[in-house]
Amino acid sequence: MKESVQPANAPQLCKKLIQGNYIKKLIIPVLIALNAVSMIPGTISTLLEIARDSSEIISIWLPSLLLFGGLLLIDLVFIVILIARWRNPVKSKLGKMALLCAGESVGLQEVFQEIDEDIAQSGKVFGKVYIGDKWVVGRSGLVNATAMKKDRIRAIFYIHIIRQGKRTTNNYHLYLFEEGGEETSFRFYFQYELEAAFNLLCAQYPNAYHGYYEDLKKFRAMSDDERQRILC
Question: What is the DSSP string of 7-41?
Answer without folding.
Answer: E---TTHHHHHHHHHHHHHHHHHHHHHHHHHHHHH
